[in-house]
Amino acid sequence: MSIEDRLRNAAHAVDEMWTDDKTTQGRFARLEARLSTQAEAAAASSPRLDAVRLIEIGRLVLVNTAVRHAPLEIVAETGQALALASAIGSHLTEHGPPEIADTASHLAELGYAALDRLESTTAVDLRADQLGEVPDVRKALVGLGALLGEVGIALVAVACGTDDDGLYSQCIEATDAADEMSDQIRGMLQSLTVNEQRSTPAAAQPTE
Description:
Number of helices: 7
Radius of gyration: 19 Å
Order of helices and strands: HHHHHHH
Helix content: over 70%
Oligomer: single chain
Strand content: under 5%
Number of domains: 1
């Protein structure tokens, strides 16, 4: 199957996901209102947010743009996700577990490079600038991987629905970058698991 056919099939699946149930948009609107209120309260009390909270906000906004079929906003949210992944990668390089420092640095580099090639994001205020701490590294990486996966799905839908060659190319390049960054995240999660297993004392042998 050609790449064009795979993209069309994926886009069709995305369309069905959002349009099958007429109440979907209403549910997302209510969810958006509730979480947006929480986000505003958190931002008012502290200019810095932890990584997991920023990821949750990013996923919510991305879903909302996909529901509304807003291609340029999806591209902008892609930039937000790439910037957040880069910021988290940079933070973990300096402050995270040593066993993932090199991979985290690579994640940051991939994100910055992809962000530099993405248009329509230069004038956007990046939520990544609000990143404070990453208190739960594993939870943050799992959420970030999910966000990048959702970015890829949304970009596929945009690529299949546009006649703009420039936008199409941006979507394909950003999808590839998101996939590569997801690989880095999986590598970090695996490294964390291996280190945890090594640190866990062996179970006591049963006595006869």
